[in-house]
Design brief:
With 240 residues, the protein is an all-alpha fold. The chain has two domains: 144 residues, no CATH class; 78 residues, no CATH class. 70% of the residues lie in helices and 0% in strands. Helix 1 runs parallel beside helix 11. It is globular. The N and C termini lie far apart (59 Å).
């Protein structure tokens, strides 16, 4: 009697080994920090920054400019009259808040765009936004750096969507059978959670280095789950 045919696609363990190999050999393709986000982050830390510089920077990206104006006109900020220009938005919201909005919008268009996994990414994005908002409010109550706390909260799990992107890319480069296997694994939420939870911190640390994120953000990525081990920015890690 012929033996039962084995499935042509790899089980979770094989996909996990491929992920580990990619991480350890440096073969993983980490997303670039969107140029607008990088420039906004630099500008926000520049004491000489002014409304004109920030407006000019945001103007370079039409989609980003439209998003910023849409938020400035939202009920959350209740403008007395329609905000029709970026300079008006800067005057109303201030450089710090507008930089935060611009960075967040730019980030979403980069690392948090994974075709075929929109629902998973949406869930991760909402968690990141909520974490950023929570960290910001706690920092305000404790009278510590609000902008730094927001970035730590927003980015502390940046490795999660990137792990999802990596395993998707691994499967696509192997074969159609791997793609089918990945679809089956992703259908099982406990399986995908195992991979993401197991490796997002390692990948997040690599991203922090590649993006040249502030040291406190890098430490929040590494130690947010065990802040007592943080070496220099324990408070920021606690806020996330």
């Amino acid at each position: 009697m012929p033996s039962e045919a084995q499935p042509a696609w790899p089980p979770l363990e094989q996909l996990e080994q491929a992920l580990i190999q990619n991480i350890e050999t440096g073969e993983i393709e980490l997303p670039l920090l969107p140029q607008a986000a990088s420039q906004v982050m630099v500008l926000a830390s520049d004491p000489a920054a002014d409304a004109a510089k920030l407006s000019a920077l945001i103007h370079q990206d039409q989609a980003l400019a439209a998003h910023v104006l849409r938020i400035a006109n939202s009920p959350a900020y209740m403008p007395r009259s329609p905000v029709v220009s970026l300079q008006h938005a800067v005057a109303m919201l201030g450089i710090t808040l507008l930089s935060e909005i611009a960075f967040t919008a730019s980030l979403k268009s980069g690392a948090f765009q994974i075709p075929g996994h929109e629902e998973d990414v949406k869930r991760l994005w909402r968690h990141s936004l909520a974490s950023g908002a929570y960290a910001k409010e706690v920092a305000r109550m404790r009278r510590v750096n609000v902008e730094s706390a927001y970035l730590c909260g927003l980015l502390h799990e940046i490795g999660k969507p990137v792990v999802l992107r990596i395993i998707t890319t691994i499967a696509q480069k192997r074969s159609n059978d791997w793609v089918k296997a990945l679809a089956a694994i992703l259908d099982n939420k406990s399986h995908i959670k195992t991979l993401i939870e197991g490796y997002h911190t390692r990948v997040g640390i690599l991203i922090a280095d590649k993006w040249r994120l502030p040291k406190q953000v890098a430490e929040a990525i590494q130690y947010y789950g065990e802040y007592e081990h943080a070496t220099a920015f324990r408070q920021e890690c606690m806020l996330t």
